[in-house]
Each structure stands twice: as C-alpha cells, then as structure tokens.
Design goal:
Helix content is 73%, strand content 4%. By secondary structure, it is mostly helical. The strands form two sheets. The protein has a two-stranded antiparallel ribbon. A two-stranded antiparallel ribbon has the order 2-3. The longest helix is centred in the N-terminal third of the chain and has 33 residues, at 3-35.
Length: 299
Amino acid sequence: MNTADIFIQQLVNGLSLGSIYALIALGYTMVYGIVKLINFAHGDLLMVGAYTGYFVLRAAGSSAAGMALAFLCAGTVCALLAALIEHFAYRPLRDSPRLNSLITAIAVSLVLQNGARLLPFIGPNPREFPAPETFPVRLGFFSVSNLQLTVILLSLVFMAVLSWIIGRTRTGRAMRAVSYDMGAASLMGISVNRTIVFTFMLGAVLAGAGGVLYASVYPQISPTMGTMPGLKAFVAAVLGGIGSVPGAMLGGYLLGIAETLAKGFLPSQFADAISFSILILILLVKPTGIMGEKVKVKV
C-alpha cells in the first residue's frame, strides 16, 4: 500500500475508534456538566456493557437480532448500575469537596474491576467476544469492514438521539437547567435528584453501547478492558471542552484519528503517548478545550 492508501485506511480506522471514544466521552461531559464530577468509573461501565453483550450473544447468537438484544441488555444493565452508583457512592458526597468525589470515583472503578475478576462467571482471564462475521465493504476507491461501518453509523445514531433528548425534550430542558443553576432549578419545581440520576443513566447507556461496539471491533474482553478507553475518552472530553456535548463528539473523533494515524506512520508504541500528549498540550494552550467556554466564578 502506498502512503495515500495507508492514510485513507487509517482515517477510516480513526473514525471508527473515535466514534467509540465519543460515545464514552459524552457520559463524562454530561455528568461533569451537571454535578462537576469526573466520573472515572465511567470507563468500567464499558467493560460491564461488553460482558453483558458477551453473555447475550453467546445465548442468542451473533445475528442482527442478537446484536440488537445485546445493545438493549447492555444499556439496561449499565443504566441500572449507574443509578446504584450515583445513589450510594456519589449522592452522599454531593455537597462535599470535589476531591472526595474524585477519590470515590477512582475507588468505584477499582471495585468494579476487581469485583468482576472475583465473579465466577467472569473471572480474571480474557475471553474472546463473539463478534459478527467481518467482510469488506467497498466505498469508492477504498474499503471498510462491515463492523467499522456499523460502529460509525450506530454511533452517529446514538449521538443524534442524545442531542434530540437534550435539545428537544422536557427532561433535556431540565438537564440544562440543573447544569446552569441547581438551586434555581429546584425552586422552579425541577426534581434535581431525578434529573441527575437520569443523566448518569443516559451516559451509562452510551457507555454500554460503546462496550458492545468496542468488543466487536477488538474482540477480546477482560475486567480491566475499560481503563484505557475510559482514560482516552476523558482526554477526548477535555480536548473538545468538558461540559460541551458537541465538544465531546468532536474530541472523540479527533483523538481517534490522531491515534490511528500515529499507529499508521509511527511505531505503535507511540500511540498512547501521543494521545496523552494531546491532553497536556490542550491544557497548556486552551484549558477550556476546543468548544469549551470560560466560566466566571464569584469569590
């Protein structure tokens, strides 16, 4: 393959990977936008979604109906788990210093990882994900696998539905109101607790879907599989402007493309270093991210 072919192929790979990063980053940015919490346990919900999809596909098969059922079950399990985490781990610390919530989020992440390792039906050893059959799809002068095309299209659908929920529904208006001023929203009759729980659950649904998609493209799952995608999705959220939904989408795609281009033209060991170097660079040059806005705080 010549340089142009490698560039196009890696660009397609980047769009596929960036779609998954964007889905996970949306959960980070929505939770941060409302309760100013960096939920480092969010990446582990990807792992929960992947394992849920694994057991569903083992039982129902890797057909289109089986994949649809896997998405449904993964989203449901992750949403319920996120609601429990918010209620028992984060809500009691809502009025505490942010450092307390941050440390709790890291602890929840470790509990999910090590808890999964101890469960007899999961265990510490990696498993092969029953991904659907892969075949190339020719698009003009380049080809893309059916799985990559599915990842990109489904991610766009999920993000479009999220944008509609936030921008067009009553619950979405409540989310924006709580994000802007929690106290004033409560005085206007909005249930703050219900809105925050819904935000956690909505982000968890996207993480669960991202887990099934990620495991389909990279078909090996383990209890620690969510750590690196979760951290990179956090980088994507900061890159785009944490708290900004369009920024999370943009940041996910930019980070995915940067990572795959690095793997295509540089030794693959540099890919992770480049991802986190982008985080350092954006914090130095534009701490609010590409689409983030400066917030004035009264002292």
